[in-house]
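Lab notebook page, bench 4
Experiment: in silico fold of construct C2
Operator: M.H.
Input chain length: 454 residues
Purpose: comparison with the prior construct
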Amino acid sequence: MEPVSENIRLLKRAYWLIKLRWVAIVFVGAATYVSRNLLDIELQGAALYAIAILLAVYNLIVLFLLNHFAKRGNEVPHAAVKKIINFQISADLLTLTVLLHFSGGIENPFVFYFIFHMIIASILLSVWESFLQATFAVLLFSLLILLEYLQLIPHYCLTGFAPYCLHRDELYILGTLFVFTTAIYLAVYMASYIAVRLKRTEQAYIKANILLQEKDRIKDEYVLRVTHDIKAHIATIQSCLGLIVNKVIGPLDDKPAEFINRAYTRTIKLKNFVETLLKLTQMRLSDKFEMDVFSLRDTVHNAVAAVRTKAEDKSIILNCDVESSVDEVTGNQFSIEEVTANLLLNAIKYTPENGTITLSAKNGNDFTVIEIADTGIGIPVDELGEVFDEFFRASNARKTEKDGTGLGLSIAKYIVERHGGKIWVDSIENIGTKFWITLPKRAKQFQTAYIRSI
């Protein structure tokens, strides 16, 4: 998976603020209704409901702006999104101040909800921007207290909640303002400290991951060169032995002929192993697939036809059931056909004579599901988690069939996941094995849909 750019991450955080604001809008409406109608607390209901409506309109406008930026994918303007986040937090602080004014001012215990905004600011913004927002919050709250104290704006007492109006109680005002201010700045300091440490750890992880990917690429290039050279030498040895085995040079005694036949057989198997390893390495290095729309129905039938003779040689019943609705998908037809055929060949290899193998393809909403089930030797339960690892072969498989690369399933997993699908397995030893493959019907969705889905 490609790492998500900083711009996209910032955009997702802006969407997160919008989700939180929808929750806040519902909370304001519900709290106003409950306080006035169930708790008999005097509130300016009309004003509070109006603020909630305006907040919803404002949230829709911000959502529209973010959707506009999201359409540009990785070209999202970082500075513009950063300004939108700063503006959202500042606007939320101003909105909370106005809500407090119409719901008791300094008497309202929800005044400490400012701290939640400070934590959010510390997560999304830089340290200096977080402290700037904290200062803005303190100034807003102080201005509200001062204007109500000087009676320049009306104070709406929380009758039914507070025993008496507190907006002119100087000791209470000073004490509350002191606690509020220190709590705000301490919250920003602690949250920013944690956020900075997490960001540094994340950056270190990203750098380490990039370094590992580069080392993995170098390893793959090395393996590619080595396997390519080995393949050439093995092909030459096989060609020379082939001349002798096919008696082009002349007849041999029984004993030398036996050794040469064994050497020839081994070179064929070794060549197949090297070719498979070479193929996996080339796929990992190129990381490219030619995608096109193709018929999955035809692809599955081709794979079944390619292995049917081998199944018949072991008297294995090979069933193929493809739903009528299964047809076109997007991907690389050759790769999917190869994966399907290899899974069927594995099933044939590890299923005793007179067994049964069933391939079915079913239609889902966005995915097509391929299921391959056999009545073979199965996989030990404690080894199921390793079957897709490179060079891994189950213990009972090694006893049944000594020859094998252990690369087939890892290649299948790589191909399926590059198509945006999944592959998994379930098995009971001595009962049978089932493989499932899901393939998306369409190409990958646009980046904007990916951003909003997280």
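Observations: Confidence is low (pLDDT under 50) at residues 445-454. The CA atoms of residues 115 and 184 lie 6 Å apart.
Next step: discuss at group meeting.
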